[in-house]
Amino acid sequence: MFEGFGRRLNFLVLGLIVLVILIGNNSYxxxxxxxxxxxxxxxxxxxxxxxxxxxxTPGLAFFYGGMVNIKSIISTMFQSFVALxxxxxxxxxxxxxxxxxxxxxGIIGNPFTYMNFKNVTLxxxxxxxxxxxxxxxxxxxxKFAIITPxxxxxxxxxxxxxxxxxxxxxxxxxxxxxPLAHMTWHPNGLFRSWGVLxxxxxxxxxxxAGLAAFIGAIFLGQRKKIIEKxxxxxxxxxxxxxxxxxxxxxxxxxxxGANFDAVVAFANTSLASATSMITWIxxxxxxxxxxxxxxxxxxxxxxxxxxxxxxxxxxxGQSIFIGFIAAIVSNVAVKINKKSKVDDxxxxxxxxxxxxxxxxxxxxxFANEVGLIYGQTTTFMYHIITIIITVVFTLLMSYLLFKLxxxxxxxxxxxxxxxxxxxxxxxxxxxx
Length: 432
Known about the structure:
Elements: H1 3-23, H2 40-65, H3 73-81, H4 83-100, E1 103-104, E2 108-109, H5 134-152, H6 162-185, H7 190-193, H8 202-220, H9 233-252, H10 260-286, H11 293-307, H12 316-339, H13 348-366, H14 378-408, H15 415-420, H16 422-427
Antiparallel strand pairs: 1-2
Helix pairs in contact: 1-4, 2-3, 2-5, 2-9, 4-5, 4-6, 5-6, 5-8, 6-8, 6-14, 8-13, 8-14, 9-10, 9-11, 10-11, 10-12, 11-12, 11-13, 12-13, 13-14
């Protein structure tokens, strides 16, 4: 009934966004005195970090694509890759302003502060990286916004209509990602004002993606035919390597400069992921399962997820412990999920959702000087409150967005299209 309307809506929304951006009045002028504040080393590192985080999305495409049915490998990879385009346009138009614009009640940014990147100049902004161009900060944050909805796509792989997914991605960025980013990272954000510590996106990226993935898997229902046979395991290994490599920009880049915090985050990221990978495969063997390469890859990703909020706040030994605990908890969560009726195709909730929650809790336990092990309870208490708020907000908003999208464009493909595979039915392409 709404098929034709949904098609026109997709083009209308994206067309209007592009049109507004094209006629926007953006300026890259800078105040002469401000150039003296820019540190060339910090700026160079942040440009590299931007590129590293960008690489993570194609890495995610390989990681996800290798694990699905061979009839939907291109579709699954494309669902990650297309986020590079869709989210970039939305971010410039209004997403960045909603996330980092002048605070409205500590919950959301003023949409007019930086709409069309207005006032996003080459001058440093003391609130968002005092030694780098503000434009560079905005582009760095864009890469986080890109990969978050791409992560969600793994939960409903092999059965979602591509155009519906694009519309959901657009709405998710505006109504879920941007408010969480504002509350967590804006100086006047609600969570930030409570002293909540999230170095690189435990709540903003991983919890939001994992929780939305959980609702998406429930909303779309089970696949008609579940085939637990990865299409291309070398793709999974390649994707893991790209993600691991890019994650150094994700975490160490969140220090917003080439400084000691970046070095600490870099080291913690490396050790937590390595520990989690080894823990995962040995726990599998302890549970009478094979020590598989896919298990090692998933374990590494879980460690990266869990260390993300804590990367700049904990010691090397604590990062190892975080990787160890996250691997055990997420491994058990995956096992439980497989026994449930929730068809989370690639276990996004168990890895990113649970991993993000574990990371946020352990950040509050170990954070330097303010953690629970230092006798401080305030940070831990506010982290628990933040986790609860994030869970409730993301679950409710995700359900509403999936419901809205389904009314406009049916979310699930027809049975015959699912049987043919999404590569052929959605894109007219086949993987050879």
